[in-house]
Specification:
The radius of gyration is 18 Å and the shape is globular. The chain has helices at 19-28, 46-55, 90-102, 153-165, 186-194, 204-214, 240-258, and strands at 39-43, 59-63, 68-75, 78-84, 107-116, 126-135, 148-149, 171-178, 199-201, 217-228, 233-235. It has seven helices and eleven strands. Strand 2 and strand 3 (68-75) form a beta hairpin. The model has no long low-confidence stretch (mean pLDDT 92). With 260 residues, it is of the alpha/beta class. Strands 5-9-8-6-10 form a five-stranded mixed beta barrel.
């Protein structure tokens, strides 16, 4: 069986160049990277950014080389940035997070949606990831091989306090991160359901791994957008429950940062 990553103990070795080197290169080319708050909300969907703009008085700026729009706002004396990740999957979001860290970000809450694997995890349910199954490739370049990667315990605690303060029901448990959404098999589904895994998505395990490697704090809060049973897939991406969940998640994230 081929070992992954191909270079044994890769996570122990220093990289040839870093995100800071890339930022320096941009500056040498007179490219503005803007300023970056310490507190960052990562949004999977444009609708999350729309909900945020409606909730808070925001200012739009550009972020680094990609010129993604970043919303900035103040809440409880904290300067918070929010950025929409236009693509999906671990490699894309990790590249953005690496550069945000190089620019000074230290606390992250990623907000997104996921497929529900358990009957009690219904569309619109709020899910706080307690750990993530590393069924993707990116995380193995940041930490030694293992089944799970883990969020910041501090950020998870603050999110739980915020969820309870806002009187919101939520479920805490494992998520399954995969690189191949169209290759989620019934065999895997049965196994992970038996293990109590709540959701499947494409980013969490890599986000946790890079945050641990770079010594920053990061947690993932999800809502259920579709459900998977052993017989069929049931999409609910545009349901009203999802829109309402996005509004709740924005408030919860801001409140959590406000407690640091």
């Amino acid at each position: 069986m081929t070992r992954f990553p191909l270079t044994c103990h890769k996570h122990r070795h220093k990289a040839l160049f870093s995100p800071r080197d890339f930022i320096k290169y941009l500056h040498s080319q007179k490219r503005s990277t803007g300023t970056c708050p310490k507190y960052i909300i990562l949004c999977w969907k444009k609708k999350l950014m729309t909900a945020l703009k409606r909730k808070f008085r925001t200012k739009t700026t550009k972020f680094a080389a990609y010129e993604y729009p970043m919303l900035k706002f103040e809440y409880k004396n904290k300067r918070i940035g929010a950025i929409q990740i236009p693509g999906i999957g671990a490699p894309h979001i990790i590249t953005v997070v690496e550069e945000l860290i190089a620019l000074g970000a230290k606390y992250f809450i990623a907000l997104g949606y996921a497929g529900g694997l358990q009957k009690h995890a219904k569309p619109g349910s709020l899910i706080l990831a307690s750990k993530a199954i590393r069924d993707e490739g990116t995380s193995y370049h940041y930490g030694k091989p293992s089944k799970y990667s883990y969020p910041s315990s501090m950020m998870n605690d603050l999110l739980e306090i915020s969820l309870r303060t806002n009187k919101l029901n939520y479920i805490k448990g494992p998520t399954w991160t995969t690189d191949a959404p169209y290759r989620e098999t019934i065999v895997e589904l049965k196994q992970f359901k038996k293990e109590g895994v709540l959701t499947v998505e494409m980013e969490a395990s890599a986000l946790f791994a890079v945050a641990e490697c770079r010594k920053v704090h990061l947690s993932v809060l999800l809502t259920i957008s579709d459900t998977l049973t052993e017989k069929k897939w049931m999409p609910k991406f545009h349901a009203e429950e999802i829109k309402q969940a996005f509004k709740k998640m924005i408030q919860v994230a801001a409140d959590a940062f406000g407690k640091i």
